[in-house]
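Milestone 3.1: sequence recovery, worked example.
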């Protein structure tokens, strides 16, 4: 199937007073029509910066240094202001982790949904109101017409996230980026929201870029998984294949850290150390300091991707080696 979005060799840097932060270093990722991609990795590895780059929402001191992001044939990174604004929200929409900060507390829910509808679709106020109620119904809010007059604080956290999804869907985007859409919610509501996202994605044939810490969520929802570490993608491939046979020692470490119910263990497995924040390109493999199978040769040069199978990519020269 054709790629609707192709990120190639993206580099994003934050120039802070005290030092530079190389937040994204050479990320390449393609998204097919109707596909769900799960982007995972520990805090600070560059997931959100990658997502913001797609909508060109990186502001100073941040800068997209190089790379290309091709959406339906055109490079988003080369577009002028009006062209990128025509894409934001309409072609590619995004929902965030904390809905309360994305909704304006002094405006009604109806006003906020209609604002986006009137901006992107040429509807008059009456049509926009009807469509807004219809969207609220689609995301499972009871009594939608009346609820248009409510303010954000009159909704629960889960309902506010549903409203955010309604706003994101209002212009029927081709791609929805969901950046940790449920981490602020309890487990039952989380499951409902993810289920809703999956249903809508299937019904609309929309592509979904799902950013999460939760490997269980990715296993259930994503066709493809990409695992990020310190600004780079370490491993990517079809979700079921990666889960069955993770090849990068980092992926294996992440999977090992998931508690398993029927296994008795004194302590949870963790990966020792933390994700480094880099100011300069590292010599060789960035995971080397934490890697259980690292060797001297790993420090010699930048590690290229190897392709161990159909559609799979692993950035490790010792991929799959026995971990003692
Ligand atoms: N506005 C900013 N100013 C300075 N540094 C930033 C800024 N935004 C991101 N960074 C840095 O870029 C790196 C990547 O951050 P990013 O927000 O993409 O991480 P993340 O993978 O989304 O993490 P989390 O799971 O915690 O959301 C981090 O080192 C972060 O400190
Ligand atoms: Mg983030």
């Amino acid at each position: 199937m054709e790629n609707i979005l192709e990120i190639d060799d993206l580099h994003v840097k934050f120039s802070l007073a005290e030092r530079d932060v190389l937040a994204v270093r050479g990320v390449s990722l393609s998204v097919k029509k109707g596909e769900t991609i799960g982007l995972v990795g520990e805090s600070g590895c560059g997931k959100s910066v990658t997502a913001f780059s797609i909508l060109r929402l990186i502001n100073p001191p941040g800068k997209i240094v190089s790379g290309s992001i091709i959406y339906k044939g055109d490079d988003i990174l080369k577009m002028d202001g009006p062209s990128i604004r025509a894409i934001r929200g309409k072609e590619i929409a995004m929902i965030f982790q904390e809905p309360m900060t994305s909704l304006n507390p002094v405006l009604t829910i109806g006003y906020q949904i209609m604002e986006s509808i009137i901006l992107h679709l040429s509807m008059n106020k009456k049509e926009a109101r009807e469509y807004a109620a219809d969207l609220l119904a689609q995301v499972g809010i009871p009594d939608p017409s009346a609820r248009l007059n409510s303010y954000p604080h009159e909704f629960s956290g889960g309902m506010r996230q549903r409203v955010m999804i309604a706003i994101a869907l209002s212009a029927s985007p081709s791609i929805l980026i969901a950046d940790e859409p449920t981490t602020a919610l309890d487990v039952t509501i989380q499951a409902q929201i993810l289920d809703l996202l999956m249903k809508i994605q299937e019904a609309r044939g929309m592509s979904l870029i799902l950013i999460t810490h939760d490997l269980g969520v990715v296993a259930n929802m994503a066709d493809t998984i990409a695992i990020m570490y310190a600004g780079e993608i370490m491993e990517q491939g079809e979700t079921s294949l990666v889960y069955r046979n993770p090849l990068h020692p980092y992926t294996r470490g992440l999977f090992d850290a998931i508690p398993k119910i029927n296994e008795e263990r004194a302590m949870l497995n963790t990966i020792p150390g933390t994700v480094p924040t880099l100011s300069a390109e590292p010599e060789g493999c960035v995971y080397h300091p934490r890697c259980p199978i690292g060797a001297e040769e790993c420090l010699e040069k930048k590690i290229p991707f190897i392709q161990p199978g159909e559609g799979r990519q692993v950035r490790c020269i010792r991929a799959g080696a026995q971990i003692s």
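The pocket of magnesium ion (ligand 2) is lined by residues 47-48, 179 (CB under 6 Å). The CA atoms of residues 160 and 261 lie 33 Å apart.
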